[in-house]
Amino acid sequence: MAQDDWLADRFEEQRSHLRAVAYRMLGSVNDADDAVQEAWIRLSRSDTSAVENLGGWLTTVVARIALDMLRSRTSRREELVSEVLADPGANGSSGPQPDEEAVIADSLGPAMLVVLETLSPAERIAFVLHDMFAVPFDEIAPIVGRSPAATRQLASRARHRVQGVDAAGTVDHNRARRTVEAFLAASRSGDFGALLALLDPEVVLSADTDAVRVGAAELVRGAQAVAETFSGRARAAQLALINGQPGLVWAPAGQPRVVFGFTFAENKITAIELLANSTTLAELDLELL
Residue 283: is its pLDDT beyond 50? Predict the structure, then answer.
């Protein structure tokens, strides 16, 4: 019993760190708590007598659990249903998020959370562990099932996309606004060819947890699939400035419920993010146009 108590105490010492790791990987307080609880279950069932660094061991366990959860999300994703883009409220709305989520996310701005949602599970794990928690690539590699060199490339790709958040300010706003207006018109009219012309071939459509709850697909990759998702839809969305950047908002009675954030490169749309989390929306500077 004394050994069990000792192990529980050591786990509690690591809990806040493990929740921070899990949250940055999963973007959800509830999912992070589930991952940490599963880590405790695995710890209680394992022989850790030979483990020299329990904190590192637990971090690896949480990372593996988070990776499985991210992959499970991707495998369960469904096509975006019409109601999400035409009338997300048809499927109900999410309740207010706990204040605790804002506390845990205090070092992650909404833009960072948005970009993390666009990463593949392996990219997200590699980036979070290395760039946010300084875990060496040779320790991350077995978690994502890659060589250290390939893992380094995963983190590099993720880092490049994250750094693009800061580069977004260099976008020509007038050109970006015209692109968003053209996208909205093509989406509403069902002009599939016009949508394809506006999208980068490798464009990524992602949705946060709350948007997924009301029917959005969590991740869609490629111009063909993204154009199919939006063709003939987005009828209730309207043009807006999101932190000064052109985008779209679904705002019944002037109350923002879903934000469509766009990322541009070389006159093409390279990423679209659907945000419905009330805490995240409250932190955005939104101006309906």
Answer: yes
Total residues belonging to the chain: 289
Taking CA 279 as the corner, what is the angle to CA 275 and CA 285, rounded to the nearest 5 degrees?
A: 70
**pTM for the predicted model, two decimal places:** 0.47
Looking at the DSSP bridge assignments, the partners of residue 262 are 272
CATH number for the domain running over 1-73? 1.10.1740.10
| Domains in the chain: boundaries | 1-73, 171-288
**Burial of 45 per CB tally in 10 Å (0-12, 13-18, 19+):** exposed
d(CA 90, CA 189): 21
Q: How far apart are CA 145 and CA 68, in angstroms?
A: 12
Q: Where are the alpha helices (DSSP H) in the chain?
A: 2-26, 29-44, 54-76, 82-86, 99-104, 110-118, 121-127, 133, 137-144, 148-167, 173-189, 192-198, 209-213, 223-230, 278-283
**Contact yes or no for 62/35 (Cβ under 8 A):** yes
- Token look-up 């061991």 returns 57
The reply to whether CATH 3.10.450.50 applies to domain 171-288 is yes
pLDDT tens digits, residue range 131-148? 888 888 888 988 888 888
Question: Tokens 């071939």 map to which residue?
Answer: 201
Tens-digit pLDDT profile for residues 164-180:
644 444 446 778 888 88
